[in-house]
Amino acid sequence: MLDSPLLQPDEYVPLAAELRVRSFPESFAYYTQKLGFTPVRTDPPHKFACLRLGETLLMILEDPLQGPKGQGIFLRMAVPHLDAYYQQCLARGAKTLGPPERRYWGARRFYVEDPDGFRIQVIPAQPE
Q1: Strand order from edge to edge, sheet including 38-43
Q2: Residue 20 buriedness (CB in 10 A; 0-12 / 13-18 / 19+)
Q3: C-alpha span between 50 and 38 (Å, rounded)
Q4: Secondary element (H or E) of residue 121
Q5: Which domain holds residue 98?
Q6: Closest to 49 in 3D by CA, of 68, 65, 35
Q7: Residue 110: which CATH number?
Q8: Would you list the DSSP string of 48-65?
Q9: Is there a domain that residue 106 lies in?
Q10: Domain total for the chain?
């Protein structure tokens, strides 16, 4: 059952991403348990959830008939404490693609990959 039929105040943001995923339960568990997102609104019968981590808003919707996942899209989110969040991801068993590193353009970042192959670049919320 839909926990709220209306958009919640937290859902009104300038831009949000919605990922079409193969398995709603697997993706919901990954984003909440491994990456630390919290549900803003869920609709399990329709296999939909709106999730938040800090200022990042992400929606997931099960769509098992769609083609390959995780291709042609690049996601980036900012967190207040990059190194601490990286350690949390490791402790929770998230798939990370290496530790935080400084790139030639000056920014530090690391990547996580979800069960569908979507890669998310994680950067610090403020310049370091």
Answers
A1: 17-21, 56-62, 48-53, 38-43
A2: middle
A3: 9
A4: strand 119-124
A5: 14-64+74-124
A6: 35
A7: 3.10.180.10
A8: EEEEEETTEEEEEEE-TT
A9: yes
A10: 1
**Measured between alpha carbons, how far is 115 from 15 in angstroms, rounded to an integer?**
23
Number of neighbours of residue 90 by Cβ within 10 angstroms: 12
Task: From first to last of the 128 residues of the chain, give the pLDDT tens digit.
Answer: 455 556 677 666 667 899 999 999 999 999 999 999 999 999 989 999 999 999 899 999 998 776 676 677 778 999 999 999 999 999 999 999 999 999 887 889 999 999 999 999 999 988 87
Both structure tokens of 85? 């969040």
Cβ proximity of 93 and 32 under 8 Å: no
Q: How far is CA 68 from CA 15, 96, 115, in A?
A: 24, 21, 12
Quickly list DSSP for 4-48: -SS--GGG--S--EEEEES-HHHHHHIIIIIS--EEEEEEGGGTE
